[in-house]
Amino acid sequence: MRIRRNWPYLALLVFVALPLLWIAGALAARSGMFAFQGTVDPEQVQVFLTFVGGGLATAATVFGALLTREHNARERRRLRLDSVLRGLESMPEEASVQSRVAGILSTMVLLGQERVALRVLEPAWQSGNVDAATATWCIGQIITGEGADRDYLEGDRTDPTAVNEAAVLLREHSDKLVDSHGYYFPGHFLHEWTTKTPLPLKVKDNILRSIGTMLRCHDRRWWFPDGRIPIWPTEVLMKCVERDSSTSVQASAALLVASLYEVNPAAFRRAYGVRRTDGMLARAQDEPLSDDYVDLSTELRTAWSDPEPSGHTASHRPHRPRHRGRKP
What we know:
By secondary structure, the chain is mostly helical. 64% of the residues lie in helices and 0% in strands. The chain folds into 3 domains: 1-32 and 41-89; 91-172, no CATH class; 189-328, no CATH class.
């Protein structure tokens, strides 16, 4: 990520600065300037100084052009965000509170003010003034650090405190991420269970706990329509089991996905293959896990053991989701 953003400066170093230093050193060596005997020809010194002066002038010109480029990019971004703020101010009075809060939170995140956005998001979510789709989008942007157009030359980095707080907030409100129509989750950053910046173990733990709580919010018929294995969160959990660098995180994800496996083992093995399935089941036994994961897995197995939960009829089958995630 840093190399991609700072490639002009790397090009300046590789194609301008280093060649100039090499040529200057070669000229100095061949002219005998490093010899301990005799004197240096004044003409050689004059040529050398002329070359070095021209090279430094060229480097200064290129460096100034790159700084101008960075300044112009920041100015364009500032103007775009000013336009967004003016658009929020011009919203009609009859616009809903949720619309205004969504616009304000999105602008804060895009401005890189993650901690301020979280201070606003927490009470707004608690009072119902922000919808789950907006909340999970903001949390996803904060966790991945993709919300703001960061300038790495100025030392901007993903805020680890904000990332931890966002993950905790997701876990605390995970029971609000599933309704009768669909689910809402910042799943775009979980593709292949990877992010541009490695996540701390505590953040991964809160994400997995959020997924477990979401699974608990609906019965077996909702998650397994016609007995099919849900793509989400099964695929995400399987990638976590196979690719995460922490064995404890792998085992935690494996325990959750094992709960999905036990609903329909035959369908699961057909969908994910015998080798992948056996590897997942073995991973669930590799590490001692906290009682929270064990209790959650036991609760899911118990709740999903009855294929026809009481009070659930075919007329209650969920509609297609409206936002963010699609019901599996």
